[in-house]
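To: structure desk
From: M.T.
Subject: fold request, one chain
Message: Could you run this one when you get a chance? Sequence is below, nothing fancy, just the single chain.
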Amino acid sequence: MFRALCLSFVICGVAFMLASCGFTPMYAKQDATSESVNFTLRNVEIDKIPDREGQLLRNKLIDRFYQNGFPDEPQYVLKVSPIVETLKDLDVTITSDTTRAQLKLTSQFALVDLESNKVVLERQLQSINSYNVLGSEFATRVTERSTRDNALEDLARQIERDIALFVKMR
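Reply: Done. Structure tokens follow.
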């Protein structure tokens, strides 16, 4: 009984501290004058990204940004530089066989305000993932492709997060 009472006081205290620190949900609309993050993301035109990995990243960004169709009059354009991929052997046995590899994707993006034609946000992107190198070449290629897809998803998450934080801090 005493533990339950203490636990309820702790939970209430944490709730009051969160309310007093200014915590607000990132994707919520705060008041009638402020834009929501979702509204801003819907109004970002995603420029073409070179190469196959760039196409896949652009598709992941489209899935994240445009839940109700493409923007009619975008406010911003998102420009992502070509993705640089680095493969590195991590675990090499005595017989020079690789058993683990690392895939690193790097890029950068710029968010350009179409009204002023100025870069309002610029960030470096990096995703590092590793995978097992298996005895079967086919299985290794499937694992590598899955790792690449996860790394691209991570880059898309980073872009969405950085733009959402930019909108909230503006």
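Reply (cont.): The chain has four helices and five strands. Let me know if you need anything else for the meeting.
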